[in-house]
Amino acid sequence: MIALSPVLKSVESSELSKNILYRNLGKTGIKVPVVSFGVMRADNPNLCKAAYENGIRLFDTANGYQNGNNEAMLGNLFKNYPRDTFYISTKIKPDGVDQQGNPDSQFSIDDFLSKFKTSLSRLQMDYVDILCVHDVRNAALLEYKPLVNALKDLKAKGKIKFIGFQPITIWIRLSVRQLN
How far apart are CA 92 and CA 76, in angstroms? Predict the structure, then answer.
């Protein structure tokens, strides 16, 4: 069912999904619908399932959304679907970043990697398609070697396919290209 205010119109899934526009996601080679599903406040797996059944293939979550329940919900939903039929993007906000967005003495790469391992466990997956560093305020994190090296290592090990940073501005975007 699609809500067409104020009328409900029944539409077959195949009819709907054939009308969805697909585009390449940047230079990743991933072809996704122009509409993705940000599941930050979604706590109903049936909503995500309906989105999937109607052609949505990119689902965006984060390690901290709903104290991790969000990732667990997606993991429970997608464990019965072929892994190559959907894309998962998750985000991790590193601890030890000051108000200006610079890594400080509390920054721990081990903590960041532990959060990522927890995300994979909750998602019940061996890898994520996109791992984003969350709440980036300036380019300092893009130049912070322990983080950059850890992200590249995760990518080399096949734990992530692509690296992202959020929020992204044009001056940060130029630096991200070097990582992917």
Answer: 20
In this predicted structure, the answer to whether residue 10 has a pLDDT above a threshold of 80 is no
Please give the structure tokens belonging to residue 173.
Answer: 């975007």
Rounded CA gap, 80 and 42, in Å?
A: 19
* Residue whose entry in the numeric block shows the structure tokens 């994190």: 141
Tens of pLDDT, residues 87-120? 999 999 999 999 888 999 999 999 999 999 999 9
Q: What share of the chain is helix, strand, coil (3-state, %, to 5)?
A: 40, 20, 40
Tokens linked to 159: 């734990």
Given a contact cutoff of 8 angstroms between Cβ atoms, the answer to whether 121 and 88 are in contact is no
Q: Which two tokens stand for residue 102?
A: 């610079």
Over residues 129-160, the pLDDT tens digits come to 999 999 888 888 888 999 999 999 999 999 99
**Per-residue model confidence as pLDDT tens digits over 55-84:** 899 999 999 999 999 999 999 999 999 999
Closest to 106 measured CA to CA, from 114, 95, 117:
95
Q: Cα-Cα-Cα-Cα dihedral of 93, 96, 101, 105, to 10°?
A: -160
| C-alpha closest to that of 35 among 11, 61, 56 | 56
Enzyme catalytic residues: 65
